C-alpha cells in the first residue's frame, strides 16, 4: 500500500515536472495569439475594491465621455470635431492611450414611440461600440440625461415621457426659476426654443416641474419606472455577448425626486435610499434576466457627500461600480476629499467606484492646474477616470487636439496588472512612470502598461526589480507587456520604472 502510494506520488511529481517544463515557459507571442483582442471584464474584488478581468488581472481605465445631447442622439461617423464619433475619432483616442469611452445611449433615441424601440438607432450605437472594440477601447453604456426632458429645456427621456398637465399651469416650467412659465407648443416644449437660453440649466433641477417629473419616474407613475427598466433590458440584450462592455451606467446624474412634496429628499444621501435605490434595483433586475455578469454602474445624487444607499443594486457588490463625478461646484472640497469619501462608500458597500466625469476642457491657468491635480490625484488613489468630454479635446478651428488637453489624456498607466497593485504614478514633468505590485502566480495573462506614443516619441527605457521576475514583451507601439517569469514567486513584490528616451 505504502509502496504503491509512494510510486504514485513519484510518478505524479514526474508528470508535474514534465508538464511544467512543457507548458509554463513564458511565451508572449503564443499568449497573444491565443488571446487576441480585448479581455472581457470580470468581477469587482470586494477586498481591494478594484475591477478585474476574466483573467484575474486588476484593470484601470483612462477614458472620456461621448454623449450626443440632441436628435438624432448619436454622433456622426464622419470626422468633424466636436460632432463625430467614427473611425478617425477612435483612432485619435487610441493614440492618446484612452482605453474607455462612456458612450451615451439616449432613451429618447431608442424609444421615440412608447413601447416601440428604434432598432436602427440601437444598431448604430452597437456599431460604434464595435468600432471602439476594434481600437482597444471599452464602452461604458450610459443612459444620459440633464434636466430629464425637452419639456424642461433638458434631454434624456423620450418626448412622450413628461406631460405638461402634471403640474398646475401657474407652477409650470421653469417656476420658480422664473416667475412666469414659458409658453409651450403642442408637445409641451418651450417655445420659441431660444427661451431655454435665458436660464441656467443646472438650477432647473430646483423647478417644481422637474422635481415632479423625477418623482413620477421614481414612484412608477403610469409605469414610467417599468419603462425605464424595460429599456435597460433592451440595451442589455444588445450587448449580452459583446466583449468590450465595461458596464452599464443606469442613469447619469439622477435628481433627488419630488422635493416639493418631500423636502427631506434634499438632505444629502436621503434620496439615494428613498428614491434611487428602488429604481436601480428595478432596472438591474431586468438587466439580469438577459445578462448575468456585466458590471452595473450606479450613481447617487450629484451633491452626495457620502453615499446614502443601503446597498448596491441587487446587493452583490462584486458586480457593481459606483459611478461618481467631480466638479467644483457642486463638490465643494478637493478632488482628494471626494475620492476618499467614495473609497469609504466602497468599503461600506463592498464594491468599487469610478470617476466617470470631471472637468477636461480648456480654461484659465487655475482650471488647467486643477485638471492636472485631478488626474494625478485619481491615479495616486488608483481610481479610474473619464474626462468630460471628448469633444472638448479639439480646437474646432483647426480640428486638431489642444496639446494641453491631449497631455492630460496621454499619461502612462497600467491598463492591466497581473497581481495586486500597490501604487502607480506618472510624472508629467519628466514623463517617468513607476508601478509597484505583488505578483499573483495564478494569473497567466500579462501586466500591460500603456505608454502613449506622443508621450514617448523616441521610445522608453524599462527597468524592473527583481529583473528576473518579469519577462518584457512589446505588444504594440504603446503597450508594454510584462509576463510573470516562471521562477517568480506568488506574492513577490515587483517594481517597474520607465523613463522616456
Ligand atoms: C488567484 O488566486 C487568488 C488567491 O488564491 C484568488 O482569489 C483568485 O481568484 C485566483 N485568480 C485566478 C485567475 O485564478
Ligand atoms: C430611428 O432612428 C433613425 C436613425 O436616427 C432615424 O432615421 C429614424 O427616423 C428613427 N425612427 C423613428 C420612428 O424615430
Ligand atoms: C450569446 O451567445 C450565446 C452563446 O454563443 C448564444 O446562445 C446567445 O444566443 C447569444 N445571445 C445574443 C443576444 O446574441
Ligand atoms: C485654435 O486654432 C486657431 C488657429 O491656429 C488659433 O488662432 C486659436 O487661437 C486656437 N484657439 C485656442 C483657444 O487656442
Ligand atoms: C517629477 O520629475 C521632476 C523632474 O525629474 C522632479 O523634480 C519631481 O520631483 C518629480 N515629481 C514627483 C512627484 O516625483
Ligand atoms: C529566473 O528566470 C530567468 C529567465 O526566465 C533567468 O534569467 C533568471 O536568472 C532566473 N532567476 C533566478 C533567481 O533563478
Which characteristics define this entry?
single chain, 501 residues, alpha/beta, eight-stranded parallel sheet, 22% strand, globular, binds 2-acetamido-2-deoxy-beta-D-glucopyranose, hydrolase activity, hydrolyzing O-glycosyl compounds
First-residue to last-residue Cα separation: 65 Å
User: What is the helix tally?
Assistant: 11
Major sheet size, sense and barrel closure: 8 strands, parallel
Give the CA-based shape.
globular
Give a description of the structure.
By secondary structure, the protein is α/β, with parallel strands linked by helices. 29% of the residues lie in helices and 22% in strands. It has eleven helices and 21 strands. An eight-stranded parallel beta sheet has the order 10-9-8-7-6-5-4-11. Strands 1-2-3-14-17-20-19 form a seven-stranded antiparallel beta sheet, covered by helices on one side. Strands 15-16-21-18 form a four-stranded antiparallel beta sheet. Strand 1 and strand 2 form a beta hairpin. Helix 7 crosses helix 8. It is globular, with a radius of gyration of 25 Å. The N and C termini lie far apart (65 Å). The N terminus is likely disordered. The structure holds 2-acetamido-2-deoxy-beta-D-glucopyranose (6 copies). The site of one 2-acetamido-2-deoxy-beta-D-glucopyranose (NAG) has 3 residues, from loops.
Amino acid at each position: 500500500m505504502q509502496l504503491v502510494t509512494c510510486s504514485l506520488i513519484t510518478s505524479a511529481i514526474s508528470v508535474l515536472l514534465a508538464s511544467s517544463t512543457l507548458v509554463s515557459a513564458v511565451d508572449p507571442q503564443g499568449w497573444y495569439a491565443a488571446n487576441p483582442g480585448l479581455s472581457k471584464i470580470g468581477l469587482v474584488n470586494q477586498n481591494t475594491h478594484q475591477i478585474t478581468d476574466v483573467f484575474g488581472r486588476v484593470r484601470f481605465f483612462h477614458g472620456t465621455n461621448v454623449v450626443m445631447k440632441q436628435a438624432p442622439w448619436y454622433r456622426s461617423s464622419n470626422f468633424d470635431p466636436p460632432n463625430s464619433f467614427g473611425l478617425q475619432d477612435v483612432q485619435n483616442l487610441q493614440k492618446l492611450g484612452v482605453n474607455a469611452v462612456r458612450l451615451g445611449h439616449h432613451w429618447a433615441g431608442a424609444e421615440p414611440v412608447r413601447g416601440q424601440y428604434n432598432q436602427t438607432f440601437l444598431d448604430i450605437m452597437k456599431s460604434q461600440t464595435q468600432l471602439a472594440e476594434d481600437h482597444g477601447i471599452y464602452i461604458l453604456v450610459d443612459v444620459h440625461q440633464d434636466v430629464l426632458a425637452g419639456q424642461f429645456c433638458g434631454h434624456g427621456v423620450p418626448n412622450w415621457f413628461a406631460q405638461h398637465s402634471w403640474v398646475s399651469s401657474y407652477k409650470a416650467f421653469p417656476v420658480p426659476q422664473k416667475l412666469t412659465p414659458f409658453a409651450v407648443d403642442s408637445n409641451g416644449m418651450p417655445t420659441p426654443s431660444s427661451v431655454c437660453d435665458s436660464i441656467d440649466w443646472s438650477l432647473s433641477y430646483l423647478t417644481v416641474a422637474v422635481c415632479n417629473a423625477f418623482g413620477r419616474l421614481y414612484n412608477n407613475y403610469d409605469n414610467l419606472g417599468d419603462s425605464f427598466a424595460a429599456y435597460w433590458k433592451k440595451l442589455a440584450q444588445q450587448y449580452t455577448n459583446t466583449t468590450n462592455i465595461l458596464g452599464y451606467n443606469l442613469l447619469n446624474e439622477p435628481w433627488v425626486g419630488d422635493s416639493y412634496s418631500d423636502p427631506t429628499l434634499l438632505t444629502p444621501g436621503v434620496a439615494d435610499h428613498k428614491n434611487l435605490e428602488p429604481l436601480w434595483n428595478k432596472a438591474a433586475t431586468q438587466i439580469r434576466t438577459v445578462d448575468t455578469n456585466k458590471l452595473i454602474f450606479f450613481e447617487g445624487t450629484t451633491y452626495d457627500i457620502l453615499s446614502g444607499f443601503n446597498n448596491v443594486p441587487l446587493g452583490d457588490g462584486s458586480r457593481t461600480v459606483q459611478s461618481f463625478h467631480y466638479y467644483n461646484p457642486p463638490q465643494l472640497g478637493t478632488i482628494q476629499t471626494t475620492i476618499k469619501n467614495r473609497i469609504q462608500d466602497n468599503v461600506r458597500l463592498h464594491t468599487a467606484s469610478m470617476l466617470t466625469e470631471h472637468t477636461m476642457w480648456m480654461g484659465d491657468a487655475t482650471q488647467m492646474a486643477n485638471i492636472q491635480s485631478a488626474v494625478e490625484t485619481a491615479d495616486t488613489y488608483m481610481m479610474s477616470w473619464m474626462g468630460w468630454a471628448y469633444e472638448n479635446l479639439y480646437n474646432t478651428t483647426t480640428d486638431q487636439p489642444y496639446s494641453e488637453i491631449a497631455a492630460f489624456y496621454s499619461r502612462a498607466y497600467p491598463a492591466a496588472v497581473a497581481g495586486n497593485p500597490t501604487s502607480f504614478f506618472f510624472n508629467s514633468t519628466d514623463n517617468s512612470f513607476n508601478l509597484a505590485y505583488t505578483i499573483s502566480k495564478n494569473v497567466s495573462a500579462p501586466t500591460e502598461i500603456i505608454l502613449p506614443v506622443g508621450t514617448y516619441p523616441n521610445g522608453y527605457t524599462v527597468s524592473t526589480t527583481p529583473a528576473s521576475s518579469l519577462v518584457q514583451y512589446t505588444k504594440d507601439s504603446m503597450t508594454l507587456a510584462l509576463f510573470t517569469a516562471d521562477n517568480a514567486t506568488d506574492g513577490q513584490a515587483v517594481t517597474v520604472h520607465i523613463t522616456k528616451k
